[in-house]
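Review box. Two proteins, two foldings.
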Amino acid sequence: MTDLISPIPSEDAAWVRVATPLLAEDLRDFCRDLERLYRINPMLEFTEWRQIGSNHYFFQAKNLSNGQEIATEIHLEETEKGFKITYNNGLKSATFINIEANSKEAILVIIDDYSKLPVTERTQRLAEVDHSLVQWGQELHRYLRNWQRWAWFPPFRWTMRRWQSMKPMGRRIAYMLIVITLFEIVAIIVMSLWI
């Protein structure tokens, strides 16, 4: 899931590579919905997300991976490789969303760059480093697989929009309730056939 060589010149970066079932242009369209992309991260608990202007947003969230509160404006810029998201506040200077095209599917590379502050200040603020990149990559992989399979079905798209607006704990609880309910339905059907 990761390479050993940094995909950007900065030595102070973390990245994850995500295999997707989408073609490059479809993946680019998917990533343009920045709010959806960020809300898929299971380690971010949002309290606010709003659009300030064209490709300019503000969000406030708690990062469950490091316990830090985040409140920052972000700017989205489309690049040849994908997207660059810059942060006004915090330790992270930018997140790069790179799309690597293959003949059948595209690879999504998410890179967090921490190089904007001097090394001494970065060292003092290590507690602010976002540790959710791997979980975000895993969840994106799962989400995109399901999206490719079920996006044609309008109730699925509607459900996923509602699902992503829930807090991560709410998603886990709802998922457990759905699984338990389905198990109970199957058990009732089996029992009624048995009797």
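Next protein.
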Amino acid sequence: MFYRFQKPARPVSRVFLHCSASDRPEHDSAAVIDAWHKANGWAGIGYHYFIRKDGTLESGRDLNKVPAAQGGHNTGTIAICLHGLEISKFTPAQFASLRGLCIQINRAYAGNVTFHGHCEVSPKSCPVFTYEDVLGIDAEGKMPLVRDVTVPRFPFRTSILTISRC
């Protein structure tokens, strides 16, 4: 199955990027993140998307719900998490899926969204990779609006998660 982004009903102006802070293979799924977040007493996974090492995009929190990912900065955002901790262990497949997803999001909002790292609103160094270079964003967090290029196709798997309401 391949993913096609559709705008949620709620307003969105920013996209935040995260990393999972683990390179362990057994942690490479949205279901694991969901379990971690529930173990912390939260309603479930706080991210809308999770990108596995093989580039597979997994769904997390429903896009129509506000994420629980960047404390105090969740309203009007979409949250994306890539599995990983060490910069050298992120994969080209992950970055290709991230770029493909962000191109779709940017197109859906006609270039009127900005892209940010969690580190911009938190003392954490998350994500640990240079997201500005991966996405080609400018100093204001804008991606170029790509109109003439076909968006890369990447695998998509709907996670089987039970997410309670916030």
